[in-house]
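Q: Structure tokens for this one, please.
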Amino acid sequence: MSSPSWLDTGDNAWQLTAGSLVGLQSIPGLVVLYAGIVKRKWAINSAFMAFYAFAAVLICWVIWAYKMAFGEQWGAAPFVGTPGPILTMNDELKQTLLPTSGLTTNFPLSTMVYFQFVFAAITLVILAGAFLGRMNFTAWMIFVPLWLTFSYTVGAFSLWGGGFLASRGVIDYSGGYVIHVSAGTAGFVGAAWIGPRLQKDREDFQPNNVLLTLVGAGILWTGWNGFNGGDPYAASADAGAAVLNTNIATAMSLLVWTILDIIFFKKPAVIGAVQGMITGLVAITPAAGVVAGWGAIIIGALSGSIPWVSMNIIGKKVWLFQYVDDTLGVYHTHTVAGIVGGMMVGVFATSEGSAAFGLTNPGGAIDGNWKQVWLQLVGWLFIVGLNIFMTSVIMAFIKYVLRIPLRMSEEQLLIGDDAVHGEDAYAFGDVRRSILHGDTQRVPISGDGEIGIIQGMAQDNERAHDEAGRTKTESEGSEENK
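A: Here is the predicted structure, written as tokens:
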């Protein structure tokens, strides 16, 4: 086959690679990070919420949602595109054109659809981090397509698809607002609607596998090279700058967070370092290709300190953060860090970086364009307001119209994965399952220590089932002494 004249095979290869890296951030990156960072009894459920969201978003994306985010403007209001499918062979092979913004690329529409899909998917996966440990899985299955349709597509069109924020000059290089402020805000609002975890879980939610969490964190960090490096839509010089700046800011943020942990808590914490890594990645995202290296260092220092204060000081003293059970602190690591990065674009964006990215903006405040600071403020205020409203409407629809509980039953909350999915994250084959379900004849005797541990697990599980059936109230979970 002859290649069309518009196709640049280098650009296409890089865009597919970048998209694949972002996909790996979700599966397996955040899947294993969630599985490791939660209590053992929620490992399966937490990983499965991310796994489900990735699949559900793709089907919605190709049937109607992509065109809502990047298609022709729907009606007179510049907020969302006209829904429609991208499923014919002609659609997949033709050159990419974003009709509202007039942007074209040197690769096919199929590449663009996949690249933008993995961004939409990871937004829902990030959002799930605020709901872990108690959201009804059926409600989650319905929430994902609704939130994608009525919230994510509006933000994406407004900032990336040629909508009103893009036309006014708001800069969001790779999703600091569209993805992270959206996910953090929606997660916090949704967590308020769902209600808290069991009090016992809130008080004791130690990670069940820190090393698995680090594996997920490493995939997340490396995959961010595609997250930010793919947004020039070309294998360009600006893509290289975005990748380098991403890693500079992330490293700086991790170091600052760790130093603050040492100063205030007297110990360097691995989970703290992971949080600092995430806030650095988030904060540099809206700025990656338009700021210089020294700007990335400053952004990294701010993202390692401001969200640290938000999470570890304000979050423990302000009643609202005590009332709303944001399981993984997604508000602090994504909303706060995303706003920090977005506002710093208004200050540190360079005219050279903006031009390399194809923008007409004359840089930020350092180049005399103080208007950019105001534009960035308007951008995040719109995204926050949009997600407060739409997330509340969607949660109310699921709860009051569909009559589907947002929160798990008391029995499921007490027992965890075994009650919700009939599975356990660290099952020992037939040995453990036979004991948990009362079939002691099938248990091989391989040592008093092993049998003692397994029988203790069985006793814990039996007590949890009995307690759930007898009282239906918050009490001891089944996994506390496994």
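A few notes: The longest helix spans residues 371-401. Strands lie at 95-98, 103-108.
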